[in-house]
Amino acid sequence: MVGDWPPAGPAGLSCRVRFLDSFRDLVSAGFWTTEEGRGDLEYVPFPSSDGPHAAMLERLGLAGEDLA
Fold first, then answer.
1. For the chain, where are the E strands, in sequence order?
2. Fewer CB within a 10 Å sphere, N or C end of the chain?
3. By the 8 A CB rule, do 57 and 66 touch?
4. Domain count, the chain
5. How far apart are CA 37 and CA 55, in angstroms?
6. Does 68 map to a domain?
7. pTM exceeds 0.85, yes or no
8. How far apart are CA 30 and CA 10, in angstroms?
């Protein structure tokens, strides 16, 4: 998620560095998917949609087809 941070680390500790990188990513993802985390991000969900407009479907040659 975050990339190569921290950098590789000492040769004898690379396994521990990878573990802590993964652990940090999982904890971060867990927090940002909670209600409190989304509030910190000021997350605003997309409004619901009824699908593409009929004019666009006609333009693409898909008018009248079931796209579900």
1. none
2. C
3. no
4. 1
5. 39
6. no
7. no
8. 28
Residue with tokens 């699908």: 51
More confident residue, 62 or 4: 62
Structure-block tokens of residue 13: 């500790």
> Contact 17/6 with Cβ under 8 angstroms?
yes
Q: What is the pLDDT of residues 35-67, one digit of tens each?
A: 999 888 888 888 887 878 889 888 988 887 776
CB distance 9 to 17 below 8 Å: yes
Residue 32 lies in a domain: yes
Residues counted in the chain: 68
Residue 1 included in any domain: no
Cβ–Cβ under 8 Å, residues 8 and 14? yes
Structure tokens at 24: 């940090």
